[in-house]
Structure formats: structure tokens, C-alpha cells
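Let us begin with a simple case.
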Amino acid sequence: MPRVITHGQVRRQSESELYAVAVDNLTFPTLPEVGPLPPTGTAGTLTTKTVPNTPYTVAPAPPPQVPPNQTIVYEDSNTQNTVYMRVASVVGPAKYNIVVL
């Protein structure tokens, strides 16, 4: 079974909490249901409950390092499971293929 996260929020690293949008689901098809944070390079799909204030755009693969205005940050409610991601492709205004940084 893939790992599916149905809570938390995402925002750009360069944005404040005011711009965070709720996660509908964050799916990592290659990870087990339970386990440690996703390792660098893990691909997944992010679907938000609403379209971000400015929709996310594709960020280039490192190197060079993905700039903060294109790095997406996932945070759960207790900020214990923060994951940094880049958008690999845009599926729709609220759905993105992502890669863990």
C-alpha cells in the first residue's frame, strides 16, 4: 500500500503561514503505509483542498539548489514531520507531482 497523508498544510518556503493551504492528500506510491520521513528523491503527488494563492510552478531539479520561492514545505499540525519538496509537474491548479528534496 502507498503512504497517503490526508492532513497538514503546504506553502512555499519563502511564504508565511498566511499563504499555507490545506492538504487534501499527499501520496507516496513507493513508500510503505507507515515509516520514517520520505527520503530525498522520493516522488509523489500533492493535492491541495484549495488552489494556492499563486499556483505552484515546476521547479528545476538540483543542482542548482531549488530557490526558496519554488520550494514547497509540508508541515503537519505539530510541525514534527516537515518535508521539503519541489514541483516536478503540474497536473492541475490544485494537483502537483512532487519530488522530496
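The second case is a distinct protein. As before, the sequence precedes its C-alpha cells.
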Amino acid sequence: MESEKVYECPLHGGGAAVRSLAGRLLAEVVGSRLVCGGDIPVGPLDVWLIDDREATVYVTTGSDGCLIVEESEPHHGYDMGDSGRVTVGAVGNETPFADHIGESVLAVREEHEPNTGRVALELSFPGGRVRCESWAGNLRLSSL
């Protein structure tokens, strides 16, 4: 029997066991956005997936290009002075997850790179799939 290779991020470790997401019902999505002056918010920079039992999974990117997936609660927004401020709150229809609120996660698939660790995560729902990936240091969410 062949053992499964583990590709952990050298800086952030392996994070949450993403296979445990299968079977969870997505109840809410919270995200953080960057606001500069009066501009339209940019983001989400990261998201928190909250299930029907209020368990929370945080998805963001690491400084080394990995995709961090861990269990943690949403943080508060913060001010970065002249660089703008980060706000945190419900993201509603702003992410591909909006179409899957109220659906259970059917399957989970990850992609890894040997020197970085996890770089992508796909969640399958009855109504489609959502891909989370680290792209040029930013979190990119897309419907499949």
C-alpha cells in the first residue's frame, strides 16, 4: 500500500484537515475587504466559511504563496493609516460561495506544490463547485 505524500507549507504547516469539510452545511460566508479612501472595497482578502453548527474555517493566502486553511474565528477589521482599512463582515453575493449557502459540501479536493504546500482547494456542492486558490499572493475564488 502506497502512503500519501504530505505537502505542508514550510512557514504555516498543514492547517486544518480539509477532508473534514465534507458533509458540513454552509450557513454563512464572512470576508475581509480592503477600503482605500472612498474607493469601492477590494476583496475578499480572505474568507471564513461558517457551517450550520457555527464551526468556522478560515481560508487565506500566505506570504509564501500557500493557501492557508485553518479553523479560526473572523478577526476584527483594522486601520492601516494611509494604506486604507480592512473591514470584516458578511460578503453576501460577492463570492461564488453565495450560490451554495444552505448546501452541504459533498467532496473536497486539494492541490499541492512540493515547496509551498497547499495552493488550491475545491469544494463540491450539489449546485456546483467553488475553487479557492493562491494566485500571485492573493486569494482567488471562482465557480466551476
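The CA atoms of residues 39 and 84 lie 10 Å apart. The chain has a mean pLDDT of 88.
Keep these points in mind for the review questions at the end of the chapter.
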